């Protein structure tokens, strides 16, 4: 019985940490600077997705990410 309770607590802690991580990540993704610089590396942005700005390299990575996300649904 005691072991079970401990496991449940462990799981909820892991879930909580996961939620915080996800919240941080999504906050990062919605962050917009509007200064024409890549939101990830700060280089001159050559592409935008919505209100997010990316350099050539990260634009490719971002589109891959969006495609992956869309396929996951
Ligand atoms: Zn970049």
How is this structure best described in words?
The protein is mostly helical and about 70 residues long. It has two domains: about 30 residues; about 40 residues, no CATH class. Helix content is about 65%, strand content about 10%. The protein contains two helices and two strands. It has a two-stranded antiparallel sheet. It binds zinc ion. Zinc ion binds next to helix 2.
Note the run of SSEs as H and E. HEEH
The dominant shape is elongated
Q: pLDDT under 50 segments (min length 5)?
A: none
Strand content: 5-15%
**Rg, please?**
18 Å
Major sheet: arrangement of strands:
1-2
Overall tally of domains? 2
Listed once per kind, the bound small molecules are: zinc ion
N/C terminus separation: 38 Å
Strand elements, count: 2
- Mean pLDDT score: 81
Task: Give the topology, please.
Elements: H1 2-30, E1 47-49, E2 52-54, H2 56-72
Antiparallel strand pairs: 1-2
Zinc ion binds at residues 38, 40-41, 43, 54-55, 57-58.
In short:
The protein has 73 residues and is mainly alpha-helical. It folds into two domains: 1-30; 33-73, no CATH class.
Q: Tags for this entry?
A:
73 residues, mainly alpha, 2 domains, two-stranded antiparallel sheet, elongated, binds zinc ion
């Amino acid at each position: 019985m005691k072991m079970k309770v401990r496991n449940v607590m462990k799981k909820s802690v892991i879930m909580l940490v996961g939620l915080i991580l996800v919240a941080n990540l999504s906050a990062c993704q919605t962050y917009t600077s509007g200064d024409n610089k890549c939101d990830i590396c700060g280089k001159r942005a050559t592409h935008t997705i919505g209100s997010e700005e990316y350099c050539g390299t990260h634009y490719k990575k971002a589109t891959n990410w969006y495609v992956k996300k869309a396929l996951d649904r």
